[in-house]
Design brief:
The protein is an alpha/beta fold. The chain has two domains: about 5-75 and about 115-145, Rossmann fold (3-Layer(aba) Sandwich), CATH 3.40.50; about 75-110, no CATH class. Helices cover about 45% and strands about 15% of the residues. A three-stranded parallel sheet has the order 1-2-3, with helices on both faces. The protein is elongated, with a radius of gyration of 17 Å.
């Protein structure tokens, strides 16, 4: 689902974007594409494949005015992640403390030492969708709170 749905949507919409000489394709990938967590190997693999799809499509539409990028989202605060955190650190801690314990014990490489809020990822998505990002294509752009311990993805 993470890969083939993206490919199908891209195949459907890219021809129109190319004919208009403008468009933006964005994939929401994950830090798991680069730092595959042992508890989610299948998820990490699918997000790694999405990076390859993104780069391939960027080459396919080169020079057309269409950009293709992936956003590497780091550990993000969602309802599902809250459940996951509580399973790992216990259900009785107040949320702020549970989050600190989770980050310290299970995601210590995060430089911001907190979960990323969805709005913070949306900020990058809005930028990449804008004319301001006309020279940003074929990239894996990180919004990971410094989670990936590398200069490049």
């Amino acid at each position: 689902m993470n890969v083939l749905s993206a490919v199908r949507l891209t195949r459907a919409y890219v021809p129109g974007m190319v004919s208009r000489s403008w468009g933006r394709v964005q994939y929401i990938a994950s830090d798991s594409a680069v730092v595959t967590p042992v508890e989610m190997i299948h998820y990490g693999m699918s997000k790694t494949a999405l990076l390859a799809v993104s780069r391939g499509w960027a080459k396919e539409v080169a020079g057309s005015g269409v950009t293709v990028n992936s956003v590497l989202a780091g550990p993000t605060h969602t309802g599902g992640v809250e459940e996951f955190v509580r399973e790992l650190v216990g259900p009785d801690l107040p949320w702020d403390e549970a989050q600190r314990v989770f980050m310290r014990e299970h995601r210590p490489q995060s430089l911001i030492q907190r979960l990323i809020e969805p709005e913070e990822i949306a900020n990058m998505v809005v930028y990449l969708a804008s004319p301001l990002a006309s020279a940003t294509t074929g990239g894996a752009v990180r919004v990971d709170g410094g989670y990936v311990d590398a200069i490049l993805p």
